[in-house]
Amino acid sequence: MVKLRLTRVGKRKQPSYRLVAANSRAPRDGRFIEILGHYNPMVEPATLVLKEERIMDWLKKGAQPTEALKRLLVRDGLWKKYTGKDHVYPAPVKKQESEEAAEG
Questions:
Q1: Domain count along the chain
Q2: Threshold 0.85, pTM exceeds
Q3: How far apart are CA 94 and CA 73, in angstroms?
Q4: Half-sphere exposure of 32 (CA within 13 A, CB side)
Q5: Rounded Cα gap, residues 69 and 74, in angstroms
Q6: pLDDT for 73-88, tens place per residue?
Q7: Could you list the residue range(s) of the whole structural domain that residue 31 is in?
Q8: 65-85: buried (b, 16+ CB within 10 Å) or exposed (e) per residue?
Q9: Could you tell me the CATH number of the domain that includes residue 62?
Q10: Within 10 A of 95 (CB to CB), how many other CB atoms are there?
Q11: Which residues contact 52 (CB under 8 A, 6 or more apart)?
């Protein structure tokens, strides 16, 4: 299966990432099929450059994005173009609230 995921590049303590299409069994920083963009979280604001047509093409072919990449696609609005609806991540549950719900 093809996965759309982030591959780490850059120096130590200065991460930068490539967005790639890769075989799901390939290592994180190993062999990939195609570079689809890049992401630099170290600058303010974070830089995200996407090849939208190629990403949409891979998604239509059945490629699955990782959770981290899916968050970036949602933030950029590309996920809404693909699915036609907004993706809302569930609000984090506080530990105290979850314990109360379990008790009663």
A1: 1
A2: no
A3: 26
A4: 17
A5: 9
A6: 988 888 888 888 776 6
A7: 2-103
A8: beeebbebbbebebbeebeee
A9: 3.30.1320.10
A10: 8
A11: 78, 81
